[in-house]
Write a structure and sequence with these properties.
- The complex is a heterodimer.
- By secondary structure, chain A is mostly helical.
- Helix content of chain A is about 70%, strand content about 0%.
- Chain A contains twelve helices and no strands.
- The longest helix of chain A has about 35 residues, at about 75-105.
- By secondary structure, chain B is of the alpha/beta class.
- In chain B, helix 2 (about 90-105) packs across helix 3 (about 105-120), helix 3 (about 105-120) packs across helix 4 (about 135-150) and helix 8 (about 240-245) packs across helix 9.
- Classes of the chains: A mainly alpha, B alpha/beta.
- The interface of A and B includes residues 25, 102 and 109 of A.
Chain lengths: ~280, ~300
């Protein structure tokens, strides 16, 4: 009969902070992504429009007649965020395509789920990466632009009637970042190759946008916007910021419903695909 | 013996395929070998124990808690999976630190524990090298280190010696034995009898998803000795290796592989052969060693037929 030394003492580590169990996943992935120079370059380019808009606000406050060509009002923020949405697409492709696909390929998902983490923590950790990246090119520059506009042109922006701009920037940024992040993660979980996932995401988002363009050209109906995630976000943005554009002129509830359905579908895919063990039937 | 791992009428099936069939067994402190041919259900057994799969029927408990759906258990359970589950771009140290952070340690504690785990598996010198550049044996050892670093009470090791050279094989065997002596529950799966035999005498024999036998490995060993064992070694200088080992009384035959780097040896006494080959293996630059033998299958067939 074996006699054990019993020198082992019970586990002495502290339990992780319950509410932020996902944070080490986010932190590690962000560290790896931001170590890529090309990615930092993309982030830098994504802030280019912010600089342009700051100059626009400055010029219009100094030369009011320039406001006829480049008006500064609530719509400016909607236009700003519509362009930034393109960067969330690129960031989601380059930053998000491999987030789950690489873990599935290497089996690292098994190592993650051999830690005191749930599948929800894992998905939240990965989602946190994309949310951080996407918000860094939407919410952060959007709010900063608003603050700068308040500081440079208080006559135009420091009005109670324009107080909706701040919340609208927050809401639009959050919706855009969340939807893009969820789609990128869901597509990433469907493949073991980051490249395939990246191409899939690109094809899904831009492919549907092309289909929308064709339908719009053929039938000239704003409902065609419901087909494309990008157009849905644009419709929602237009409704929030009071922008009039026939191509996206839909009641806000329609694109909101489509985006909700897309997000729920992505969560369902993630629930089915994120497992420590892949079961092949 | 206090049971740290309990299977109560546990079954797991994948569609029409039954991977584990109505298994009832307990595993207590010390090292236990989970032995069975490829496809016997060993990995499913370990995945159920690690809470990575839910039993289709029955119950699996670890340290008194249901294994499935109890992530908090992983503070006290270490898993060394069979596949190479790595982030190739990280160094060995970064890999361990990242996983320790997930377990809930702060950075200073992570560093200390990572260094300690690297030392245990003799990877301290390679800690700042990227895992992508690690050899097969080093990859095995870093996997082992990640399962140990948080000081778990239960260790589940899936084929931990696969692809290791003789020196590191010895080192890992000693480490597993030490962990078992400390009173931890260590479950080691393998399809190679003498690997398990080097670590423990207590085995669970699994075949076609059922526990076929449990108890002392010697009885199985007696059956195995009737079947010569094959060992393949990859060496920088295979002919020097062949010269050194051919005189050993444990070697029955020796052949060179077609690619020139491999030597295949047949032996009736694999553990004696491994002990005698260590010096020669170092001199001939043996980088990889494995047993392609499937003769455990024949022993199982014998046991089933008996």
């Amino acid at each position: 009969m074996p006699i054990y030394e019993q020198t082992y003492r019970r586990y002495e580590a502290r339990a992780p902070l319950r509410t932020v169990r996902f944070w080490p996943i986010t932190r590690e992935a962000l560290r790896l992504i931001l170590a890529r120079r090309a990615f930092l370059g993309l982030l830098l380019v994504a802030w280019g429009q912010f600089l342009f808009r700051v100059i626009q606000v400055y010029v219009v406050t100094r030369l009011p007649e320039a406001g006829r060509v480049l008006p500064i009002d609530g719509r400016m923020f909607g236009q700003f965020l519509a362009i930034q949405t393109l960067f969330t697409l690129l960031l989601s492709i380059f930053g998000g395509a491999g987030l789950i696909a690489n873990d599935l390929r290497t089996g690292a998902i098994l190592v993650y789920l051999s830690r005191p983490l749930t599948r929800r923590d894992y998905v939240l950790g990965k989602l946190g990466v994309l949310m951080a990246l996407n918000l860094s090119v939407t919410l952060v520059p959007g709010l900063l632009l608003y603050l700068i506009a308040l500081a440079l042109a208080p006559d135009q922006f420091a009005k109670w009637s324009l107080a909706w701009i701040g919340p609208a920037v927050v809401l639009h940024s959050l919706v855009t970042s969340l939807v893009m992040s969820l789609i990128a993660l869901a597509v990433s979980s469907l493949s073991r190759s980051a490249r395939v996932a990246g191409l899939g995401f690109f094809g899904l988002v831009f492919g549907l946008e092309i289909v929308r363009g064709v339908l719009r050209a053929l039938y000239d109906r704003p409902e065609s916007a419901l087909l494309s995630v990008q157009a849905d976000l644009q419709s929602l943005g237009n409704a929030l910021f009071g922008i009039t554009d026939r191509a996206f002129q839909l009641p806000w509830a329609y694109p909101a419903l489509v985006l909700t359905a897309v997000s729920l579908a992505c969560l369902a895919i993630l629930r089915a695909r994120v497992r420590a063990v892949e079961i092949v039937r | 013996m206090t049971a740290t791992l309990e299977f109560v009428r546990a079954s797991r099936w994948y569609g029409p395929v039954i991977a584990l069939n109505d298994v009832t067994t307990t595993v207590g402190p010390g090292v236990t070998g989970l032995l069975g041919p490829n496809g016997a259900g060993k990995s499913t057994f370990l995945k159920l124990a690690a809470g990575q799969l839910a039993p289709s029927q029955g119950e699996v408990r670890v340290l008194g808690k249901r294994a499935w759906g109890s992530p908090e258990l992983f503070h006290r359970v270490g898993v060394c999976p069979e596949p190479d589950a790595f982030w190739e771009g990280l160094t060995g140290l970064q890999f361990l630190m990242a996983l320790l952070r997930l377990t809930g340690f702060d950075d200073a504690e992570c560093r200390g524990r990572a260094d300690q785990a690297l030392e245990q598996v003799a990877l301290t010198e390679a800690r700042d090298r990227k895992i992508g550049g690690y050899s097969k044996g080093m990859r095995q050892r870093i996997k082992m280190a990640q399962s140990l670093a948080h000081d778990p009470q239960v260790l589940l090791l899936d084929e931990p010696l696969s692809g290791m050279d003789p020196v590191n094989r010895r080192r890992v065997v000693d480490l597993v034995k030490k962990l078992g002596r400390e009173g931890r529950t260590v479950l080691v799966s393998s399809h190679i009898l003498h690997e398990v035999e080097a670590m423990t005498r207590r085995v669970l024999l699994i075949h076609n998803g059922r526990i076929l036998a449990e108890g002392d490995v010697r009885e199985i060993r007696d059956l195995m000795d009737e079947h010569p064992h094959t060992v393949a070694l990859r060496a920088r200088d295979p002919r020097a290796l062949a010269r050194a080992v051919v005189g050993s009384p444990h070697v029955l035959s020796l052949t060179f592989g077609a690619e020139g780097e491999w030597v295949t040896v047949q032996t009736a006494r694999p553990d004696e052969f491994y002990s005698s080959v260590v010096d020669a293996a170092v001199e001939a630059g043996v980088s990889e060693m494995y047993s392609p033998d499937e003769n455990l299958e024949s022993v199982f067939k014998y046991l089933v037929a008996r």
